[in-house]
Amino acid sequence: NRAFQDELARVDGSLPYWLVLIALKSGRHASQRELADAVGIRGATLTRHLDSMQTDGLVSRSVDPDNRRIQRVELTEAGAAAFRRMRRVAMAFDQRLRTGLSSQQIEDLCALLDHVHANIDDGQDEPMPHPPPQWRDPVP
User: Most exposed among 5, 22, 27, 61, judged by the fewest C-beta atoms under 10 Å?
Assistant: First the structure.
């Protein structure tokens, strides 16, 4: 994550900016609430990022004329250009990560990561089990 952040910073980007830009570029997320759900950044944190992105001219925000409680977020031309810069970095970074891996290894890795992700999602409502005795720190 830190290495990817460093790469994005070289083109004046950041992970939160990238996540917001890619969600907006997909065209499926128009309201601030939908955007928050898509990128996994909540409340005041997303608002701070959007404030900064609006100041930088990357996004514009407006009130939905049909429902004044809804904030619409749109990509600007400068935001589209920033997306293209960050996309080049993301694609190069992805290629670097995959170097030396066969197609089968990549497929296996994706399957394993999907499984780990499903395990996380499945256990959200359950308390973490206590580790077995051999995993606990020895008591002095």
Answer: 27
